[in-house]
Amino acid sequence: MKNFKSILFVSLMLTTFGLSAQTNIELKNPSLEGNPTQGQYINGIIPTNVPKGWRDCGRSSFPNESPPDIHPKGFWENDILANDGETYLGMVVRDNETWESVAQRLPTPLESGMCYSFTLDLARSDNYWSNSHMSGSVSNYVTPSVLRVWGGTGFCDQNQLLVESAPVTNSDWKSYTLEFEANSSYRFITFEAFYKTPVLVPYNGHILMDNISTFVAYNCDEEPQLASTKPIKKNDNIVPPHKRKKPKEEPKPEVKEEEVAITASVTKKAKIIEELDRKTIKKGQRIRIPDLQFTADSETLASSFYPTLDEVFAFMKSHEDVSIEIGGHTNLKPKNKYCDALSERRAKSVASYLITKGIDKDRISYYGYGKRKPLLRSTSEEANKKNQRVEIKILSVG
């Protein structure tokens, strides 16, 4: 009886101080050791070799595609050596909207409401040559991609996106520190190569992965404790999505109502798109998205214009009875075929941005008008700037 009371007392003490739920998790084969294998068809057969303890998720998601590669052995002209142990994993994203991922069953599940941190080594080779699935010609799969980590209740399940890295652009190994909070209990973990979003057109890219550390558990209102088999390099490419409790706010001094009104009038954020007003918009109305700029001859948006699109997103989110068309327009200089294609890609880029942030895709369409609807019939510099634009067309209201 005495021993029982002692055990009960210790258990209660552990629970009181939040120690009982902090279970670190060791992955199986975290260094991704295996037989170097090139993930491609061999005599019409897809190889199934993946590092021991891991499962290829592509067999269920994309059964006609090859699995990840176990390096190094000069595959795809990649000559980077392993950073830990003898081998590492290479995963690609493809221009036919397929990508690679691997999963494993955890020895103990991630715990709901618990935060975790871990490190791993990521890199991108300057050479990863293979055939493009869309064109059939040889392509270098080097467009920067990201690593996504999913929690699930079965192999390759994607119940919660736990964390996403920044695009991997470094051609030498770098240690990335990732943190997340589990919103449920997950027994399975998936590591996935994916496109940098928002993405207009799927592209060919890859990431290399090695040396995954222990998943260190900690209470989300505490500073994370990191575990690694070697010193962690400082890295600014970190996405810290876990939620931490905010510090207790000091009482604010009493402010008179007239002072509040004056302050609000001064600090209120200026509206970027004045015409985007639920009270005045009409079906068929076209509204220009002002000063929206793209990289030359590209659909890539300058990040400085995200606030403008965020205003469109906020409007669409607040008014779910509104549906729109995103229309792209070019200047009059290039040929029609080029203008049509470029304007459509740019319109799709804007639509993809809004959809990625959470707007139902059924409420947004896009169209490339090319140079068929110019505001000014001139090729002067001023005319080009005005003609090259993106507009919102109100398709329905209410």
In CATH's first tier, which class of the largest domain applies? Mainly Beta
DSSP E strands, number: 17
Specify the structural class: alpha+beta
Number of domains: 2
Which regions are unreliable across 5 or more consecutive residues at pLDDT < 50? 4-21, 229-250, 255-268
The appropriate CATH architecture of the largest domain is: Sandwich
Which superfamily, in CATH terms, is the homologous superfamily of the largest domain? Galactose-binding domain-like
Series of secondary-structure elements, N-terminal to C-terminal: HEHEEEEEEEEEEEEHEHEHEHE
> What shape does the CA trace take?
globular
Report the total helices: 6
User: Largest beta sheet, briefly?
Assistant: 11 strands, mixed
End-to-end span in angstroms?
A: 71 Å
Q: Whole-number average pLDDT?
A: 83
**From the alpha-carbon coordinates, what is the Rg to the nearest angstrom?**
26 Å
Any overview of this molecule?
- The chain starts with a helix and ends with a strand.
- A hairpin with a 7-residue loop joins strand 8 and strand 9.
- Helix 4 crosses helix 5 (about 335-355).
- The protein is built from six helices and 17 strands.
- With about 400 residues, it is of the alpha+beta class.
- The strands form three sheets. Strands 1, 2, 3, 4, 5, 8, 9, 10, 11, 12 and 13 form an eleven-stranded mixed beta sheet that branches. A four-stranded mixed beta sheet has the order 14-17-15-16.
- It is globular.
- It has two domains: about 20-220, Sandwich (Jelly Rolls); about 285-395, 2-Layer Sandwich (60s Ribosomal Protein L30, Chain: A), CATH 3.30.1330.60.
- The longest helix is centred in the last third of the chain and has 22 residues, at about 335-355.
